[in-house]
């Protein structure tokens, strides 16, 4: 029998919705948002490469799947829908792309091609085995109080047999992350993190996937850079990081990690 933990603890959805309403950290006016310490160029470089590598890994993981020509995909949560553009390059044919989120602000920003739903992922209302692939990007590090298991079990329920779950999350083992956590304790929450939001243990999430019944779990480091690193430093790290992204235990020490697994 599958062990389920923390299923009855609820996420603070009001605080999560407020998080979507706050200003971007680079527009906060705090001295740490000065161009000497941060910029949109640095932020975009880090996040765009992270997404490119994540979806490249998803492409490789699913290239022999039968649904590559006619996939039904769920983005959970969907955010502003930017991942839609990456998905077009992953699958040769897409039957439907659905997106679920609790934020009406995010849903309003989604491309019209996405079938959106305003709802909690744990109470999605989707039928069993509704999707061939589910992408959960940078969400689970917000739900430590609830635990990973409720969401992982829900994704398992929603996937077709043979379907793929892809997850992108920040790793708690990233060394520079320890520096930023210490800095946050000294200077306060200048970037507007939600209470309880923090990077996750790669092993804990892997264990949760295994408990739910997922198999063929593949873990990949995505980037070892940080949005605060100057662009030239990011380029230098990105040019030499490949062996560390694929080899254990180094891949778990990346800033962000991707998980790819199958419901058999």
Task: Walk me through the structure.
The chain is built from nine helices and seven strands. It is an alpha/beta fold and 264 residues long. It has a seven-stranded mixed beta sheet, with helices on both faces. Helix 3 links the parallel strand 1 and strand 2. Helix 2 runs parallel beside helix 3 and helix 5 packs across helix 7. The N terminus is likely disordered.
Tally of alpha and pi helices: 9
Largest sheet: 7 strands, mixed
Structural class: alpha/beta
CATH C-level class: Alpha Beta
- What does the radius of gyration come to? 18 Å
What percent of residues adopt helix (DSSP H or I)? 25-40%
At the fold tier of CATH, the topology name is Rossmann fold
Topology order in helix (H) and strand (E) letters: HHEHEHEEHEHHEHHE
Hey, roughly how much beta strand do the residues contain?
15-25%
- Could you give me the name of the CATH homologous superfamily? Vaccinia Virus protein VP39
Number of domains: 1
Kindly report how far apart the N and C termini lie.
16 Å
DSSP strand tally? 7
CATH-scheme architecture: 3-Layer(aba) Sandwich
Globally, the shape reads globular
Mean pLDDT, all residues: 92
Strand order of the largest sheet: 3-2-1-4-5-7-6
Which residues sit in consecutive blocks of at least 5 with pLDDT less than 50?
Answer: 1-5
